[in-house]
Amino acid sequence: MKAKLSKVALTCMMLLGAFGVNAQTTAEKYQENIRLNDVGYGKVDTNMPRTLEDYVKGANTFFDLLIDVHPMFKYEKEGRLVGKYTMSDRMEEFVEINQGPKFAEKMGLEHAAVTYRLGMESILDFPNKFVGPKKCGECHPAQYSAWSRSRHAKVVRFPDMMEEVGGAEGLKKPMYNSPSTILPLGIYPDDVYAIIGTPRTKYGFIDRWLVRGTYHIQDGNLSDMSGKMVAGGNQFSRLWAEHITPEMAQKIAKFSPGFPTKMDDFGHSKSTVWGTNSYGAKYAQTMMFQPATSYCEICHTFKFDFKSNEEFFAAIGNAKELQKHTISRGISCEECHGAGAHLYGARGAGMPSNCERCHQRFAYQPDEEKPNPRKPFNVYFKSSCPACGTEGSQMYSSLHYDKGMRCNTCHDPHEVTANDWRDEYTRVGLKKTCADCHEIQDEFLRKIGGIHAKDNCTGCHMPNMMSCENFASVQNPDKGGFDNVRTSHIWKIKVDKTAKSINPPTGKERDPMKVKGWRMSRDDDGRFFVDLMWSCGRTSFSDPDLVGPGASGCHSPVQSTLPNDLKFTDQEMIYEKVMQWQTPVKSGYEEIKKGLRDIDRAMANNQSLDNTTKSRAIFLAKEANLIKEKLEKDGSWGVHGPVYSKKIIDEALVYIKEAKDILKAKK
Fold first, then answer.
1. What is the pTM for the complete model shown?
2. CA–CA distance, 620 with 614 (Å, rounded to integer)
3. What CATH number does domain 575-665 carry, 2.120.10.10, 3.40.50.2300, 1.20.1070.10, 1.20.140.10?
4. 461-479: pLDDT as tens digits
């Protein structure tokens, strides 16, 4: 580390820079700010609570070191850096993001982490109390086995662990008949600490300095720091490499005008090759300098067994040494249950889960209090589709949440991937399914082999809507696509010809490439909803109900195997189809209600009826009323089962007619 300069000397240097003398880089200015505030990383007392501010400032010394040693700044000083960088630190990610300061001011808090939660421990805590998942597995074999098969266990891997491509060598081989490779141009296995991601969606990398890879190298390689470091072109996308081929792009463009069909059309999301996009960056324009301590460790986390900060700092830049001292990778046991869990009293020991740390990413919006004062938070958006990790923030505004449902109500947190983790879709291990609570709805869906009898409730009520890639150029919420790789947790479908689940700020055009600040919309009850296009007509290449075994592609214009008149290119088409089901059911329901009222009047106006006649009429009316109540409880008005709905309506009307005939005969 450099010796610290006095505040006077640093102030003079900043003034000289302002006059053009030895002009400083963005990184040097940031570094001076750290030193002027004289905040370093002290020893952690695990017996004392660590507040948000403690956590945020705890990365300053690490940042200081990285500015001295990371190659990005060498490329910059030598004029070989293409694109500007921003310094993305814990203050930005935890405190400043999504109007955290505004919420803190309103609530009288010093700071507020609206979007992210603190982990049990940081990768900067030395010595820490982590024992590693294998030690947990010695006493918890069933949970360890389920976890080992899950993507939670695979999201952080060293290059030689990439079994789906045959190890480290496969990282530079073209994937899925595209020219794209897992590691981008100029980046090789020895340059990285770990690969982030799985075959379901994407792969990124953390370099050997433990900085998120938001760049690639042209005309050289990172290993010897040759060539040019270029912003973006850094992330392998399975969606783009395998599915949105040039041919598929042309098909999508026919019903989604403006969809990119050439490399230049992808704008700042583009890259050097088809199948690799720019994430955390805009191609050749901007990128984040973001250490893993500022962002990655929130969800794609890992821990070391170094005994001191000095040991850790000495290993920075040495991938093999960092890998050798890694004691835990991915979302492992102790990330949820606490470091050391019940083996000794560590932070968070004994916690049943901590799903919200990664899966409840909020965005504070003051005006959200108008439609629902109890829920002043919307969902975190990076582009025009909800960000990954927003399952909990979607559920927060649902009736399910208000009735007490939480992540662990349905999910087994150990078996988050019940199918093969190499698949491009996820089937999760569930403790409860929709039918366990919604028996009537399940009856309507399954009875007499209706048109959706083989489908899952989730296929319509939990469509894949969330983005993992921030791939704005291929997003079109109005058409239900196309970078949507995670399941929504909203459930309520709104049957409306034009109402949209996702909208840009009021008065802004509906252009994902130009407009930021998209949000989930609310219905009259102040709750989020799923619109008909997302429910029935979406296109997704990671949705099991569209791409899983035996799936028909639902009603996607480019994935469906159904006849052309059942391929929905816009919401109006779906609305008309739903009306064909709902109109006769609603008419029949109203006819039942009227008939029951007529029976009540007939009995009230005829006091001389004998008991036998009364009992027969009452029994028939009760049978009809049970059907009326069943239709109300189902609530879909024919969508769950149009044939079955019409069948039981006819039954109810027969009961009513017979009851009326009995009463008429005795009048």
1. 0.91
2. 10
3. 1.20.140.10
4. 999 999 998 899 999 999 9
